[in-house]
Amino acid sequence: MTDTLLEICGLNKSFEGVNALCGFSCSMKRGEILGLIGPNGAGKTTLFNVITGFIEPEDGEVILKGVNLTNSAPHRIAKLGVARTFQDVRLVRQVSVVDNVLLSFRAQLGEKLGNVFFHWSKSQKCERENFKVAMSLLEKTGLYEESNELANDLSYGQQKLLSLVCCLAADAEILLLDEPVAGTAPAMIEQILSIIRDLPKQDKSVIVIEHNLEAISRICDRAIFMDAGAKISEGTPEEVHNDPKIIEAYLD
Amino acid sequence: MVQVLMNSIVTGAMYALVAVTFSRIYSVSKVLHFAYAGVYTVSAYTYYIAFQATNGRNWVAAAIAVAIAGILGGAIERLVYRPLRTRHASGLTTLLASLGVLMVVQNSIALFFGDLSRTLHSSELALKVEVFGAYLTPLRAFTVVISLWLILVCWFLLRFTRFGLKVRAVADNQGLASVAGLDNDRIILWTTAIASAISAVAAICQAYDTGINPLMGFNILLMGVVAAVVGGMHGLLGASAGGFFVALVQNLGTWVFPNQWQDMFVFVLLIAFLLSRVSVFSATQR
Amino acid sequence: MEYVLHIIVVAGIYVGLAIALDLLIGHTGLLSLAHAAFYGLGAYTSALLSVYLDTPFLVSLVAGACLAILLSLLCGIIVLRLSAEAFAIGTFGLQMVLFSIYNNWMEMTKGPFGLKDIPRPAILGLSPQSHLGFSIMAVAYAVVAYLIASRASTSPFGRVLRAIREDEVLAWSFGKSTHRFKITVFALSAALAAIGGGIYAHYVTYIDPTSFTVMESVLVVSMVIIGGAASRYGAAVGAVVLVVFPELLCFLGLPGSVAANLRQILYGGFLVALMIWRPQGLLGTYTFSKGGIRG
Description:
The structure holds three protein chains of three kinds.
Chain A lengths: L3 E12 L2 E12 L3 E5 L6 H8 L7 E6 L2 E2 L5 H6 L2 E3 L12 H8 L8 H6 L1 H22 L14 H14 L4 E5 L7 H12 L7 E5 L3 H7 L2 E6 L2 E6 L1 H6 L1 H8 L1
Parallel strand pairs in A: 3-8, 3-9, 6-7, 7-8
Antiparallel strand pairs in A: 1-2, 1-4, 4-5, 9-10
Helix pairs in contact in A: 3-6, 5-6, 6-7
Chain B lengths: L1 H28 L6 H18 L4 H29 L4 H23 L15 E3 L2 E3 L1 H23 L1 H11 L1 H6 L4 H27 L5 H16 L4 H21 L5 H15 L10
Chain C lengths: L1 H26 L7 H19 L3 H23 L4 H21 L1 H4 L22 H23 L1 H11 L1 H6 L4 H27 L9 H14 L6 H14 L8 H22 L9 E3 L2 E3 L1
Antiparallel strand pairs in C: 1-2
Helix pairs in contact in C: 1-6, 1-9, 1-10, 1-11, 2-3, 2-4, 2-9, 3-9, 6-7, 6-9, 10-11
């Protein structure tokens, strides 16, 4: 049993004639932080959407722990242990910070209506435990003070942090983070990066999309450079950075 | 069978006209103008009153009815929908306001004229003529002709006049249109008024055919809305085709099943149609 | 006194209906125009069982709710596959189809002639003739509906509903099978409405399809919106206002049909005014604005 967690083979996807993904393949090992870089429109977010089931590819496969996920529904893939953030920060804005975190927990008894009416005390117990975990997560990540504020009232950087915290609460094995630090202040960048850096220690694996190359080189074990839907370069962040093919891609 | 087809064409023409006018208002203002039914009913009653007041001068009465319909439609747009637009009201809010207006109008008519149907008689118009083995009356023929003619007029207006160009611009993208210097509110107002005025013609035809009652607008609007949804809210051809299609389904229903179930088929059609365009995870492109 | 009790019965039933619908509209963001159809389903089922099979009142009531659950699950599976806008139109179609069944299935529902002689039960040993028993029942129904809705909405289940309301894509990304949630709340809402229908049928002892039209659905939607969607007591307040307010007209001593029309006129006018000047409703904080929820 190899420690390849995620395997992506030959993905093809085009939108109205534009090739978003062109025979893209890569693989990811358990416990690694993989960076995904490339110019706008390279297909990075499309790749995330295909992996998480929001988009169906025309060809190719996504295999997670030996299970073929291609064409599965997004919520099924999420239940298998994949969590993601979105490029446009998605949160339930009219609801409090802690409620957003609580939403992400996976096994919640109280989500079944039957339990709500017939096993109320057990559901409440589960909820209380989740609440404790949620609050400790918020404390560890610096959002404790804001726990009762509406998600909408947070600053942009805090919202990005919150969506990361929600992924942590989901206790997923794989986290797909789409531009987790873009547009945030340096202090917040530090905070978010340090959280991501610690994830392999908790037996989690991460793919990060970022334009911030410095951030990538600081936290990623490996990086992949994408352009026009294809993999242009792959290796450690330094190797990729120095690859002449990249300069060509940017100049095109 | 020919009778069924013939009936479908007549009813279909009316549904088509309703669908076309209703969907034009929607495309320009994004409002589901259910109060349309009220305007429709008012125009029929106006014709009735004017007809009696002028001692049977039907063209004069028609002109009055059409004018009143246009004015009323415009007034509703100006006094109810425009303020809602200014306040960025949601579709649901506007829909409820529209229904509120409908209730006021419909019940006012019932208050003053009673709930029962009244009829308009014209012996020449009711003369039955046999065509291809089915019965046709001059009234029904007239209905088809005038409805189709009015739809063509709409098409012409939209396609070949400056006003039509402005209407299409606003329908396409309100924000862009106003940035380009168009007075959205005026265009919407005129579109609503004209569409309401046109609908009066269908109302008058219906008045002669089956009489007038406070619910006539509501009943035909239901069919018109199904027609517009099925045919597409954005094209004249679609809405018209939808109108004929709905009428056909309704009449085929009477042919196959006992009379009263016909309407149910129309709504089953609606649901089936909506389902056929479904993709389960539709919000995937982000 | 009997008159006041009558108002309490009507108000109680509508409060329950509105609370049930608020679960769909307010908490999940699903506009359903089929509520009256399920209300009617409960009424007809309960009435038919009592009239033809002589079943006791409570059994009829529960049977009505069960049938509503079954039917709503079936319909829900179909209609909940649609996007939000199409869903509203779909429930409109559903309402019209069910109404057509009530109005045309002469063998069962007697169509426009309606069902009469529905037995009025003695509640808590009180005389069936008096309205007191039913007013207690109606209030109990409203309270139970409130408790059920309250429990559902404050639970994790409710949390997912609100996530669906605001951003269904987000809910998927956390593994929520949103389709299942929507069907469940749809069925719950329908069941509560059906129970109200059963109470109504046995109270008025005669039902016909005109009580279960699309405009009736619109009436309950208005109660929810006027009171304030997703607010704690909004649906209840909306229901009470729309039931009691027109009744005040009765004191003007107008003839029946005039009063009925005048009531609708005032109600329509009130609705328009509120939508223009206070669209979030009397107690509400959320408006369904263009582009989602806004607080």
